[in-house]
């Protein structure tokens, strides 16, 4: 559709007839993200509150469709890239974010650790180094004062504010570690997401666990088993061994559902539920 045709459609968005509006909305949404700049321009040039509101709704629906499509593609073909999965979730709330900021910050963290990394360090020494860089020098910490805030689940906000929830902190920690060939992966422990340091010589063996929310505290398998016992849960491999990246993104989405529920944002809660349902079926 040509630009003048799009502008003509947009100019009719203030029509009081809801059926006409729905038809216009469907046509514009079908155009996809290419129409967003023209919609934004129309919003800026208009003083009509109804038209502006409807433009905002259409832009959001187009962007939400893009997030759904990206998440489906990631689940099918790119799930080995945890960061990309987190950025797709990020696009839900921050569709216009310059994602290079996230890449740059993670690269800086990697470089800071690499500078002090010595080849023959023991696993515990590597954890001590990671903890020093991530928590003392960079300043990451658990957001204990606003634990349920949605921003704790968006990686750009966690890197910006340096505060997050257990899973967002664990994701940042493990992404940096894996980029340095340190075998640290997420463990889907109920009520509290943790990390596992795997044996490089035997990738199936967990050497120890890391509680990132508690500034990188090292935990043994007995600690994990005791925690599960308190929850009256079995010490199954699902809770003791690393999970895949799809399970991590599902957990991030469930956290967001709970966060939006906590702040009574029903619309966002329902949209995040749609994203979760999308990958639950895979």
UniProtKB/TrEMBL annotation:
By its UniProt entry, which InterPro entries does this protein fall under? SirB1_N
| Family named by the database record | Belongs to the UPF0162 family.
Taxonomic classification? Bacteria, Pseudomonadati, Bacteroidota, Sphingobacteriia, Sphingobacteriales
Q: What is this protein called?
A: Protein SirB1 N-terminal domain-containing protein
The UniProt record lists the Protein SirB1 N-terminal domain at 101-254
